[in-house]
Hints:
Layout: H1 11-14, E1 18-23, H2 27-34, E2 40-44, H3 54-65, E3 75-78, H4 87-94, E4 100-105, H5 111-123, H6 133-139, E5 164-168, H7 171-175, H8 177-181, E6 187-192, H9 194-201, H10 210-222, H11 239-252, E7 257-259, H12 265-272, H13 276-291, E8 296-297, E9 303-304, H14 306-319
Parallel strand pairs: 1-2, 1-7, 2-3, 3-4, 4-5, 5-6
Antiparallel strand pairs: 8-9
Helix pairs in contact: 4-5, 11-12, 13-14
Amino acid sequence: MRDDVPDGATAAESFPLTWLYAPGDRPEVVRKALTSGADVVIVDLEDAVAPERKTYALHATAELLADPRPGPVPVHVRVDALDGPLAAAEVRALTGLPGLAGLRLPKVDGVADVVRVAQWAREAHPSTAGAGDSAGAATGSSSDPGAGSGAGSGAGSGDDVPSLYALLESALGIENAFAVATAHPAVRGIALGEADLRAVLGVSGEAGLAWPRSRTVVAARAAGLAPPPQSVYPDVADAEGLARSCAEGRGLGFLGRTAIHPCQLEIIERAYLPTRQETEAAEEIMKAAAAGAGALALPDGRFVDAAVVAGARRTLALARRRG
């Protein structure tokens, strides 16, 4: 993954920190979400929509995404369960719409789930069907090691498959985290769905999620993807708890967080922006890197290599969000 900001991209585009869910059957809420200050808006067709409203939600979302620029930030869509009756039609209906920046796939258990979605997407464009599907699965890695940066720009690969973001919400999904992250060139990110995972594992506290969280972070980075965002914090009234949870997640290697209400956005962003001390340390590292090539040591004895420099670039990119 690239840890600098590509030319012409803002820090928010390259390193989104806030991902706000909005129900797909409430277009007025989606419109408000687009101007809420979130870095990415996720239109939800799954849990947030009642069964009798699913058809309307899909039509409203397709209408929104027919606009190449539906809002000031990228728009992702979380489709329904992949093993249910709705997901295939949703993927086919949304693929190719100019305003779609990515598809979020719930309850992904393994490679076959990702490949199946890619096939549905190509079926929306029969002229490209059969091209490239085996590439990611056969090699076990993304064709673009820098593809994990950012929130997604629409096409996830050269075969008209949108950028895909897999949600790991089961024990099997956690076990297969790296395989999922490298299942197809269109995969741009993985993340946890902790509500379902808690139920599956019978976990009531935080300790039981420590390993799944670290597993997800390591798998994403090993696959060359961006650090995953944290799962939602369900208590919108608990600002202190959200801030504390974000600090813990940042310490585990997450970057940013999904939210269910705009009131959570500022807290999440503040928690994930670098401190003044972190920014100064990153500046020192970049000065040292500019002065010499290869591994080197700072005046205080700290060792600096390419990975440390890449992290410093990301820190400075995030720091620029403060203005």
